[in-house]
Amino acid sequence: MVCDRCKSVLADTLEIAGIPLISIRLGELEFPPGYEADFDRIDRILETHGFQRIGEAGAVLVEEVKALLVTALHETLVPLGSLSFFIASRTGRDYSMISKVFSRREGITVEKYWIRLRIEKVKELIQMGQMDFTQIAYALDYSSSSHLARQFKSVTGMSMGSYRKLLDPPRSEWDKIV
Predict the structure, then answer these.
(1) What is the distance between the alpha carbons of residues 89 and 41, in angstroms, rounded to a whole number?
(2) Are 121 and 172 part of one and the same domain?
(3) 18 & 72 share domain
(4) Which of 21, 29, 25, 19 is nearest to 53 (CA)?
(5) In this predicted model, which residue has the larger pLDDT, 10 or 178?
(6) 165 and 117 in one domain?
(7) pLDDT tens-digit series, residues 155-166
(8) What is the largest CA-CA distance in the chain?
């Protein structure tokens, strides 16, 4: 679960199903102490909404990093300094270990994932039409609008201007970016 809407839908569905919940955070459900969770039933509910329970520690770590980066992007907490320092300081774990686990599980580096997330945010901002390309570059902490333009074209295969002209521009859902 990497967005507020996902959390809300899941919380409502679990409540309707009579499953008690203390809290729901990005990528994490917390049940009351002593509650014997019916994981088969919870799994069916999760699958109905396109989610799945994560059991392995590496998978949990990857989802934690994804949730951290999506939240950072939406709250415009663009990592100052290096991405590796940002992630390590927020997770309390060694970045080299995080990087290896992430790359092995996702088939992409954390840095490339971050770039793809940012490009999806750029697409969103272009579609909203409230900022020009220079303002978008500044808002997302790019060194220049030309750097953003090169990265956008590298990831999408088209210029930002061409993307803006599309009638039905392609977008990826936040939780499907890889």
Answers:
(1) 36
(2) yes
(3) no
(4) 29
(5) 10
(6) yes
(7) 999 999 999 998
(8) 56
Tokens of 127: 């579609």
Task: Give the range of the structural domain holding residue 43, as residue numbers without chain letter.
Answer: 4-48
- DSSP track, the chain: --SHHHHHHHHHHHHHTT---SEEETTEEEPPTT----HHHHHHHHHHTT-----SHHHHHHHHHHHHHHHHHHTT-PPSS-HHHHHHHHHTS-HHHHHHHHHHHHSS-HHHHHHHHHHHHHHHHHHHTSS-HHHHHHHTT-S-HHHHHHHHHHHHSS-HHHHHH-SS-----GGG--
Indicate the residue type of 133.
F
CB 60 within 8 A of CB 53: no
Round to the nearest angstrom and report the end-to-end CA distance of the chain. 15
Q: What does the CA dihedral 122, 107, 64, 116 come to, rounded to 10 degrees? A: 0
Q: State how far the Cα of 168 lies from the Cα of 178, in Å rounded to an integer.
A: 22
What are the tens digits of pLDDT across the range 27-64? 677 888 888 878 788 888 887 877 766 666 678 889 88
At 13, the amino acid letter reads T
Quick one: tokens of 91?
């997770």
Whether 13 has a pLDDT exceeding 80, the answer reads: yes
